[in-house]
Write a structure and sequence with these properties.
Length: 162
Amino acid sequence: MKNIKIEIKWAIIFSVMGLLWMVLEKLCGLHGKYIDYHLYLTNLFAIPAIIVMVMALKDKKKNFYDGRMNYKQGLISGIILSVIIALLSPLTQWVTSFVITPEYFLNVIKRSVEIGYFKTTAEAEANFNYQNYAIQGAIGALVMGIVTTAIAMIFIRTKKTK
């Protein structure tokens, strides 16, 4: 447990940041009045997500590996971090869906049928629901976390000196 203390800390920070992002989206009207823009603007979450992942890897390098971390060590740390975030993701999605913005699914279902993205409300309901979002969120967190780590570690790893 001590070996992954840093990853647990940053997974919690990441999850809280994700919830704060959802509050921001709701306050900006992206879950209601401006829902047409949600599909595009929600992707801006990648910016703070990448920043937090990089900060977590740098924290691990500095405070666990005493400033010398190779690519493999960082990749393992990032995978562990991504798994923990993925495990927390159904909980954060539940908080988002039922506490922060319980009207989101109703709004997106209605709008997606209005604009013809789905032909029927039933089709839209099959796509926009807590279960689908929880699964997609967990898989997305895992995949994007690993990809981010794989790229970030090219720059964060300790380079061999001659």
